[in-house]
Amino acid sequence: MDRLPDLIALLARRSAKRGQFTLASGKQSTLYIDARLTTMSPDGLALIGPLGLGALRDAEWRVDSIGGLTLGADPVSYAVSYASALAGTPVRCFTVRKEAKAHGTGRLIEGSFREGDRVAVVEDVITTGGSALRAVSAVRQAGGTVVGVLALVDREEGGREAIEAEGLPVVALARASDVVRRMGS
């Protein structure tokens, strides 16, 4: 995690904003963290992949695949999967659609998820935990076993606790308080 300070600095500089915002959860906040501004950048991806892979190893989750609800989870999952291939320990990735396709296979989960997989569900920013729990439900319905939730940022607003109340451990690479502290420096 020696590059974690670099990731927090990048999130503070690029993704964190002060003002009045309505979050995806519907909550009002004076802090908005648009993680996509970091997760969809080359330097962000280069940091997130190895850090996320290291977090999975540290948690000893031993997963077959990684993914979460589109769109926020997608670049994080892809970065970790790519880093796992470079490290010689491939972890497949997938995305969970917000609704099943009305055409083709009609799948809710796209990518290289397989029934029976041990899965880490990904979330870019946890606020209430709702998006991660939707992904957890989809993975379970498709025959996967969710071993935990990997978040880029925990807003520290009850989402972690909501996920943990469902019996799942949560690992967050950063907390909102880390990002805010760095905004001030």
Polypeptide structure, described:
- The chain is α/β, with parallel strands linked by helices and 185 residues long.
- It has a single domain, classed as Rossmann fold.
- 40% of the residues lie in helices and 28% in strands.
- It contains seven helices and eight strands.
- Helix 1 packs across helix 3, helix 1 crosses helix 7 and helix 3 crosses helix 4.
- The two termini are 21 Å apart.
- The mean pLDDT is 94.
Give a quick summary of the entry.
The chain is of the alpha/beta class.
Q: Which bin fits the share of residues in helices?
A: 40-55%
Strand order of the largest sheet: 5-4-3-6-7-8
CATH topology: Rossmann fold
Largest sheet: 6 strands, mixed
Task: Determine Rg (CA atoms, Å).
Answer: 16 Å
Mean pLDDT: 94
Q: Given the C-alpha coordinates, what overall shape results? A: globular
Number of strands: 8
Contiguous helical run count: 7
User: Please, what is the oligomeric state?
Assistant: single chain
Instruction: Please identify the top-level CATH class.
Output: Alpha Beta
Give the termini separation.
21 Å
Unreliable stretches (pLDDT < 50, length at least 5) are none
Write down the secondary-structure element order. Answer: HEEHHEHEEEHEHEH
Kindly list the characteristics that best describe this protein:
7 helices; 185 residues; 8 strands; 6-stranded mixed beta sheet; Rossmann fold; single chain; two-stranded antiparallel sheet
